[in-house]
Amino acid sequence: MASKPGILTEWPWANLGNFKYLVLVPFVGHSIYSFLREGDIGYIAILPFLLFRFIHNQIWISLSRHRTAKGNNRIVDRSIEFDQVDRENSWDDQIIFNGLLYYIGYLRMEQVHHLPLWRTDGLIITALIHIGPVEFIYYWFHRALHHHFLYSRYHSHHHSSIVTQPISAFIHPFAEVASYYAIFAVPVIATEFTGTTSVATITLYVIFTDFMNNLGHCNFEVIPKWMFSLFPPLKYLIYTPSYHSLHHTQFRTNYSLFMPIYDYIFGTMDKSSDTLYEKSLEKKAEVPDVVHLTHLTTLQAIYHLRLGFSSLASKPHMTSSKWYLWLMWPVTLWSIVITWIYSHTFVIERNLFKDLKLQTWAIPKFRKQYFSQWQRKSINNLIKEAIMEADQKGVKEEKLNNNGKIYIRKHPELKVKVVDGSSLVVAVVLNSIPKGTSQVVLQARRLSKVASAIALALCQRGIQVVTLDEEEYKGLKARFTPEAAANLVLSKSTCVSKTWLVDDGLSEDEQLKAPKGTLFIPYSPFPPKKVSEDCFYFSTPAMICPKHLQNVDSCENWLPRRVMSASRIAGILHASEGWNEHECGDMMFDVDKVWKASLDHGFSPFTMSSAIEAKI
User: Angle, to 10 degrees, between the axis of helix 422-430 and the axis of helix 449-460?
Assistant: First the structure.
């Protein structure tokens, strides 16, 4: 929102929220009816074109987020936070507006019903008018928008994004976008008057403006230097991402639309444009200090990735899917095929913690594939390659979701430290148990080192640990000292305690048999499926991030904003404290030491009350 919103700032459908696309439904329905009755192809083709615009822009969003996370050719190094993501979630309003103009124009103007597919003379006229009147009018209109009266009421909303991403290009008040469309309509009107308009003229011009807008706001330099060396005057005819980026950081320079020539003519070209361009081209990929290695969870997790839909990535990934994602099953199916073919990890996120550079690398495999026998070798190779790549790059720590002892055993020369985060997970779970608790139920489908460590710590603190499975009881008792084992209890009754420590294998039957008011505290990376309405479900082990963790603009799976999993935090602590040893296999750190380190570095407990506040 602009600092002093003017008239027609809000979009007409702003109050509809996620239902704003309903404004197009009558036209879509009518176009389908007309096609079935009269075979009107032009009318029904509007919807596919709008979908193409959406996909085109989404590709730019994903590409920009991937490239800026890697760091090579990145222009502005500042962070993007949730407030910018929320502000830019309305980027698709201009596509809806475009659709309304097309539909209404098609219904009102009989002459557009019989347009030829191609007219070369129309394309030439469109190009000439864009180079002349459109670029000239836009330049002076843009300068007018930077006058304090219009800037405070309209254009300041767009400039709230100092660090741009492709969707930043389309974030403007309604009145401003309407003005832009009026300017861009000049070539269309001109070709209509000259009788040279065509389907290609209109569609290609819109695609061109979308492409150039995305290019100018992508925040990584992509225009090769050889183009300007081969044809020097080109620098007056096409801008670069770094050229327009300076407009967002300096405000009073580089006003041109896509052609810098008018900035050169009227003396508003930023003197550092060439320097920033060359500096951005030379920038190498960032070498992180800590790498978090993760993988896809559910089949629809691709849309919740930071590289996916930013609106979904900025919210917790709920266990129940959005209904409209089921309509995208062809894309989901194609993503599964890609995970079978593509065999390399990719960077999805970068963060900054004090002086530590953090990156998240994703293994292109879904969680279910980890349980597939024929996928195991492929996954192990991907993990091995990621560890070796991190080691070659000089990464200090690599955080693994799974046990990494096999890789350390095979490669004892590794300089990178492999961390599974078990110690902090145990510490977080122990500190999540309500004070005054004297007895807990430990449920485990398999006796992991985390479950064993939690049970041992509780028994040593004089808290009774009740197990419901005899094999589990025997396994724990064999590992404990007689003193600790004295607090270990085997019970066939589920009504012994209202505090349950559980993994993601907790069955529906076990949940329904638990006493009313039971608190389920997961210790596994994945939460159990919620069944009982009479019980409370706590978060998977996690902590609230401090303010000095920067560039946080997406949620980690189902966790709320700025809440990070304990296993991921462990890698950050490992590097911050300079602990020069691995934490994987059977090895664990002192739980109290790790918990104190997390608090010292600004992380705070994620309690039941904070979880409730995050949902409100």
Answer: 40
Structure tokens that stand for 335 in this block: 């993503």
Q: What is the pLDDT of residues 418-469, one digit of tens each?
A: 999 999 999 999 999 999 999 999 998 778 899 999 999 999 999 999 998 8
| Mean pLDDT for all residues in the chain | 91
- Cβ atoms of 450 and 426 within 8 Å: the answer is yes
Nearest alpha carbon to residue 556 among 548, 546, 547, 544: 544
Three-state DSSP class for residue 361: strand
Residue 281: partners with Cβ closer than 8 Å, 6 or more residues away: 73, 221, 224, 225
Domain with CATH 3.40.50.720 in the chain: 436-543
DSSP string computed for 493-517 = -S-S-SEEEE-TT--HHHHHHSPTT
* Alpha helices, H only, 78-198: 82-87, 93-108, 120-129, 135-145, 148-150, 174-193
pLDDT at 381: 85
Contact (Cβ atoms closer than 8 angstroms) between residue 290 and residue 166: no
Closest among 242, 595, 207 to 426, alpha carbons compared: 595
Total residue count of the chain as it appears in this document: 616
pTM over 0.85: yes
Provide the strand spans (E) within 481-600.
Answer: 488-490, 499-502, 519-522, 536-537, 542-544, 549-550, 563-565
- 554-571 pLDDT, tens digit per residue, is 999 999 999 999 999 999
Find all residues with CB under 8 Å of 46, minimum gap 6, and list them: 27, 31, 99, 102, 103, 106
pLDDT tens string 153-212 = 999 999 999 999 999 999 999 999 999 999 999 999 999 999 999 999 999 999 999 999
pLDDT above 90 (res 121): yes
Element (H, E) at 199: helix 199-217
SS3 per-residue string spanning 22-65: HHHHHHHHHHHHHHHHHCCHHHHCHHHHHHHHHHHHHHHHHHHH
SS3 564: strand
Collapsed DSSP state (helix, strand, coil) of residue 335: helix
DSSP 583: B
**CATH number attached to the domain at 436-543:** 3.40.50.720
> Burial, 149: exposed, middle or buried (Cβ in 10 Å; 0-12, 13-18, 19+)?
exposed
